[in-house]
Structure formats: structure tokens, C-alpha cells
Design goal:
By secondary structure, this protein is α+β, with helices and mostly antiparallel strands. The chain has three domains: 72 residues, Uridine Diphospho-n-acetylenolpyruvylglucosamine Reductase, domain 2, CATH 3.30.43; 125 residues, Uridine Diphospho-n-acetylenolpyruvylglucosamine Reductase, domain 3, CATH 3.30.465; 81 residues, UDP-N-acetylenolpyruvoylglucosamine reductase, C-terminal domain (Uridine Diphospho-n-acetylenolpyruvylglucosamine Reductase, domain 1, Alpha-Beta Complex), CATH 3.90.78.10. The protein has seven helices and 19 strands. Strands 6-7-13-11-12 form a five-stranded antiparallel beta sheet, with helices on one face. Strands 1-2-5-3 form a four-stranded mixed beta sheet, with helices on one face. Strands 15-18-17-16 form a four-stranded antiparallel beta sheet. A hairpin with a 6-residue loop joins strand 17 and strand 18. Helix 3 runs antiparallel to helix 5. The chain is globular, with a radius of gyration of 19 Å.
Length: 297
């Protein structure tokens, strides 16, 4: 029987996932496919499932720590990028990056998505994790999303069905195997010049308060109720701490940056140390915001 890579020339074997992580870390995937279209994604996923090969979707890898041993099975990514206005709202393909969406929406006079300039991930990944920044989040705008199951079948899911919570949704709990291929957002209309200035202001605020221009995992812990993870981590002495090639950002203690060919193990050690210190000193258990993916050591 032909292998997956023989059946589909676009499928690569032993693909280093560090190439597909904004953090630049991660072991190999047994198979990897960057789908140019939703149809090609459905076809490859259905074939892999029929062969008994597990399928793992990945977005831009901006808030995902891929372990050093990599991921078994097929890892898929939707490369298709498209933004169109429909009767339901602004239809955005899952592969579209949120900062690009924010810029394009502002230029075209669509309001509500300016916060996306501060979300360095794909639209699909942002829906999965209910990403947000500067007081706004996906849950407040999503109307519905289109998904594929592991057999390549598509369906529409309403925002209500997603059961969004703080940096959470059913995609992170019950629907782990579902692959988001697009989202439809409700938007308003406003002066493009005003919106572009709004985007610029948010971007400047992000540059001033978060690490910028360096490989980062984004916010690694969720903010506990009534407090900030960054404040607690800084008070616990974590700011600037280095383990291996990873460092707790000296700009913001809730960010871990890749300063010297970091490994996932370095990041996990920093996460555990931060959680332990905050728990011991303040009695608060920090909950990770990042997703850990792959085969454990």
C-alpha cells in the first residue's frame, strides 16, 4: 500500500516542527502537510484517518510549545488566507494571521478587530483559544466557524456552541480533533483613517509593554481572577531568569523568550519553577495559557 507521502506529494516526512513554531522549538512530525486549500486538507486528513494515522492540527505555533521529541502521526496546517464580506459577517480563513486581519480590516473600514494587532497567531488558533488582547477577545465577535472532522467532513458551529471562556473553548476540551478552517465575525463600519490610528496605538502599546522582535510564546499563564500572572511572577523573582536557552522576559514576566537555541525542556522547567514559586509565596496556582503539544520524554 502506498504511503501517505507517496499518495500526496505535498506531505513531508520527518518535518522539523521548529520551522512551524514562532518560538523556533519542536522536534519532528512523522508527516506534515501545509494545505493550500480546505479541499486538499479534507482529502489528506481523510486518507490519514483511513490508514489509522492520528491527525494533529497546528496554527501558527505562536502560543504552542512543541516538545523536543516531536509529534507522532500527521500534523496539518491550513495555509489558505482569505477575507471576504458575506451576509453573515466577515468571513476569515483559519490561516489568516490576526495582525494582518487587523490591518486589512482597518484599511477597509471594518471596526472591532483592531485588537488583533496584539495577537500574534492565526485566526483558527485564536478561535480555538479564545485569544484576546487589550480588553477584547474572539468570543465577543465570532458568529460561527467552519470545521473539519478527522474524516474530512465539514460542519458549521455557532459561537454559542463553542462555550467560550477566558482563553478557553470546547475546542480545547471536547473538540480537540476538530480542525477550524474559517470563522465569521460581526463587524461595524467606521472611518478607515480612525481605525488605522487605533491599530497603530494598540501596536505601540504592545511594543512598550511586551517583548517585541524576539521569539516568544506569548502569555504563558492565564491571569488569575483579580490579579495578573506577570505581577505574581515578577514578585516571585522570575523576571529575567534563564534556564538553558529560554528566558523569562526582562520586559514582562509572563512571557518566555528564546534567547539561545532553547529546547522545550528549558521552557517546561521555567514554567514549573514559576508555578512553584508563586504557589509557595502567594498561595495562587497559575494555569498555563500555552498549549503543550507532542510526545513527552
Amino acid at each position: 500500500m502506498p504511503s501517505l507521502a507517496e499518495l500526496f506529494p505535498g506531505v513531508r516526512t520527518d518535518e522539523p516542527l521548529s520551522r512551524h513554531s514562532q518560538f523556533g522549538v519542536g522536534g519532528p512530525a512523522d508527516w506534515f502537510f501545509s494545505a493550500p486549500t480546505v479541499e486538499s486538507l479534507a482529502e489528506v486528513v481523510a486518507a490519514a484517518t483511513s490508514m489509522g494515522i492520528p491527525v494533529t492540527p497546528i496554527g501558527a505555533g505562536s502560543n504552542t510549545l512543541i516538545l523536543d521529541r516531536g509529534v507522532r502521526g500527521l500534523v496539518v496546517q491550513l495555509a489558505h488566507k482569505e477575507v471576504n464580506m458575506t451576509a453573515e459577517g466577515l468571513l476569515v480563513s483559519a490561516g489568516t494571521m490576526m495582525p494582518r486581519l487587523a490591518l486589512d480590516a482597518a484599511r477597509q473600514g471594518f471596526s472591532g478587530l483592531s485588537f488583533g494587532i496584539g495577537v500574534p497567531g492565526s485566526t483558527g488558533g485564536s478561535i480555538r483559544g479564545n485569544a484576546g488582547a487589550f480588553g477584547s477577545e474572539i468570543a465577543g465577535l465570532l458568529v460561527q466557524c467552519e470545521v473539519l472532522d478527522t474524516r474530512g467532513n465539514s460542519r458549521t458551529i455557532s459561537a454559542e456552541e463553542c462555550e467560550f471562556g477566558y482563553r478557553d473553548s470546547r475546542f480545547k476540551r471536547d473538540w480537540i480533533d476538530l480542525m477550524i478552517v474559517s470563522g465569521t465575525f460581526t463587524v461595524g463600519r467606521s472611518d478607515p483613517h480612525v481605525l488605522q490610528q487605533e491599530v497603530k496605538a494598540i501596536q505601540q502599546q504592545r511594543k512598550a509593554s511586551q517583548p517585541y522582535g524576539i521569539r516568544s510564546l506569548g502569555s504563558v499563564f492565564k491571569n488569575p481572577e483579580g490579579d495578573y500572572a506577570g505581577r505574581l511572577l515578577e514578585a516571585a523573582g522570575m523576571k529575567g531568569m534563564v534556564l538553558g536557552g529560554a528566558q523569562v522576559s526582562p520586559v514582562h514576566a509572563n512571557f518566555i523568550v528564546n534567547v539561545r537555541h532553547a529546547r522545550a525542556a528549558d521552557v517546561l522547567a521555567l514554567l514549573e519553577l514559576g508555578r512553584e514559586r508563586v504557589s509557595r509565596q502567594f498561595g495562587v496556582t497559575l494555569e498555563p495559557e500555552i498549549v503543550v503539544m507532542g510526545e513527552k520524554d
